[in-house]
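Reader question, answered in our methods column.
A reader sent in the components of a multi-part assembly and asked whether the whole thing could be modeled at once rather than chain by chain. We filled in our standard form and ran it. Here is what they sent:
COMPLEX SIZE: two components
ENTRIES:
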Amino acid sequence: MSTFGSKRIVVGAHYGLRDWLAQRVTALLMALFTLVLLVQVLLPGELGYDRWAAIFSQQWMKVITFTLIISLAYHAWIGVRDIWMDYVQPVGLRLALHVFALVWLVGCAGWAVQVLWRL
Amino acid sequence: MTDTTKQRPVYRNINILTDVRTYRLPIAGVVSILHRVSGLLMFLLLPFVVWMFDTSLTSEISFGTFTNAFVAGIGFVPGWFIKLVTLGLIWGYLHHFIAGVRHLWMDATHSVSKEFGQSSAVFTFAASLTLTVLLGAKLFGLY
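And here is the structure of the entire assembly that came back:
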C-alpha cells in the first residue's frame, strides 16, 4: 500500500484491514497456546505447585507465554477500542476510555511478564 | 408488488429504549453480541487473571494463598464469590473461543450462508454451555 508518489492511496488510513488481520492472527496464536497448555495440564499426575510451576519454567514455554501476553494485549486493544468506537460518542469520554484501556492492558501485560520471568 | 404485501417493520438506528424489546435477534446475532460481552468481561477481569497467574506460580506459599482463596476467600471477598467470578471467566473464555473459531472458519472457508450462520451458532451455544456446566460443576466440587 503506497503512501507516497503518483500511485499513493489517498483514501482512508487502512488500519481497518491491518487490525482485522492482527485480531485473527493473535486469536490463532492464543488458541494454539491454549492447546499446548491444556496438553501439559492434562498429563497424568497430580497438579500441585511443583508440576504447575515446572510447566512455566521451561524456557520454550516462557517464550510462547510471552508471545501469548503480547498477543492478548494487542487483541484486546483492538476489540475494546471497537466497543468504545461503537457505543461511546462523546469525544472526551471516548478518549478517556481509550487511555484507560491502554493503561489497563499495558499494566496487566507488564505484571504478567514480571511473574513469568522471575520464575 | 401487490398492495396486499404485508409491511414489515424496518429497523434503522435501533433505539435501546423502544426497539430492543421487540427486535427479534437471530441466534447468530445473540452469539455475536455475547462475543462482545464475553470479550469485555475478560478485559475487565484481566487483573484478576494476572493475580491468579501470579499467586499460583510465584511460590509454594503463594500457591497456598491461591488455592485457599477458592475455599476460605481472601480479604473481605468470600470463596464462593471467587468461584462465581471464575465461573464467569470460564464461560467468557469458552464462548469467546468457540465463537472466534466460528469466525475463523467462516473466513477460511467462505461459509457465509444463512443456514451455516444458524447451525454454527447453535453449535457454539451447545458446546460452550455444556463445557461451562461441566467445568463449573468441577469448580464447585460437585464431582
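What stands out: The two ends of chain A are 43 Å apart (CA to CA). Chain A has a mean pLDDT of 92.
Send us your own complexes using the same form.
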